[in-house]
Amino acid sequence: MTFIYVPIALLVFVVAWMLLRTLRLQKIPADSAPAEKPEVDKDKISRHLSEAIQVKTISKTVMTDEDRTVFLEMHSWIEKTYPLVAQKLERIPINHYSLLYKWQGSDAKLKPVLMNAHMDVVPVDEKTRNEWKTEPFGGEIRDGFVWGRGTLDMKSIMIGLLESAENLLESGYQPKRTIYLTFGHDEEISGFQGSLKIMDTLKSKSVQLAAVLDEGGMLTLGSVTDDDTPVALIGTTEKGYLSIRLSAEGKPGHSSRPPRQTAVGIVSRAIAMMDDNRMPATLEYVLPTLKKIGYLLPFSKQFALANAGILKRKLVKELEKLPETNALIRTTHAATIIEGGIKDNILPGSASATVNMRLLPGDTIESTMEHFREAINDPRVKMEIADEIHGWEASRLSSTEDSAYLTLELVVRQIFNNVPVAPFVFLAATDSRHYQPICNNIYKFSPYLIAPEDHSGVHGINERISQENLVRMVAFYQRLMHVWGDAEF
């Protein structure tokens, strides 16, 4: 009867092994040593952000010279508002409207670092004006917030960088390594005339960067944990971008004598086939995020996470429940535009749809299009890349073991009271991807904590940032400039 006990013993061993792996995730990281936080003038930075909001640096798909002139107004405002930056940093206009500032370091052997923001903002939909509580470009300071377009995305970060540099210059600080501050003028329309040109300029001078910091993840509440514990998410890669156009032809005629499917029906079926055949899920990029904060999760999730190799299907099913976490495990697609037909009783001669995709690292434009061609499997449907820029691939993955990342994580924990920090895949697009030819360590982090109800203000209505966030932002950038400026990595 001994053989009966063998599978039981094996089962006990496997369960014990899985539990041991789970217990490792429950280890709470030690607190970082506190750092002295600089004093920040809340009223001054709020006033400066308010003034910057009032300069309507709107980027549009089609820009005239008159539209771009407002960026020169922003340049003048920066020169006037930050006199030490203007006097002591080398200012290099790029492509007329973007700005590159060089803060020369004392040790030429150290590779420079670059901190980026963009000056441009998206327009305000005129149909929503009456839903705004303040004038969208008024920069009103009220109820502990600065209100207006760009307060979150991302003039606050531009002001935070400039304010921090001005404060450090006033204190007499001189970095060992060169620090670049860059401000693009067209990030909201893909950054090809701004940050890409800045990168080209640096590359032409044989500059290789030790690290880049741009906008990205922030301190979130409840997005990766089951409670309101704030977690700082640092983007170490970002998704690629692709829009495809599906189209089909039909024969116009009277709707009383229709074919089995019209052109609209053919395109609609193609979209449905895409929806039923999503890109496959992978846990490769989400596991480092979840394991870093595993101690914050309930036991059931810790168990699944610790044993993801065995329980992959269960974990994927759990992550698929929410759009935010589903987007971390696969290339996503969303049908966003559909066109066809001119009248309800006329058969359409043609129909088309635009489907936007965000590519997870590991998936390419070619492999994604091939996947959906096979899913649609209909010769009547033409598939082509929809946009003029032809999309772009996902960014390379930056190291979380490099000193640049480790010091960045340290500063986040020092300024934000030992908040948990985790790397993740940033879902949207940033200017930082343009710096890949001259930098391997590119990180995406926006140093503020906003309530869930304020997320909708980004590109939406009633965009605002708290004055408390502005104070922490300056403290963060000032500390990071000091640390990155002196660290030898």
Features of the shown structure:
four-stranded antiparallel beta sheet, Alpha-Beta Plaits, 14 helices, 2 domains, 35% helix, alpha/beta, Aminopeptidase, globular, eight-stranded mixed beta sheet, 489 residues
The CATH architecture of the largest domain is 3-Layer(aba) Sandwich
User: Whole-Å distance between the termini?
Assistant: 63 Å
* CATH homologous superfamily label of the largest domain: Zn peptidases
What sequence of helices (H) and strands (E) makes up the elements? HHHHEEEEEHEHEEEHHHHHEEHEHEEEH
Q: Which sheet architecture does the biggest sheet show?
A: 8 strands, mixed
- Briefly note the CATH topology name of the largest domain: Aminopeptidase
The radius of gyration over CA amounts to 25 Å
Please indicate the count of domains: 2
Please state the average pLDDT score: 93
CATH class of the largest domain: Alpha Beta
How many alpha or pi helices?
14
Given as residue ranges, the uncertain stretches (5+ residues, pLDDT < 50) are none
Structural class of the helices, strands and pairings?
Answer: alpha/beta
Determine the fraction of residues in helical runs and give it as a percent range.
Answer: 25-40%
Question: Tell me, what's the shape?
Answer: globular
The number of distinct β-strands equals 15
What percentage of amino acids are in beta strands? 15-25%
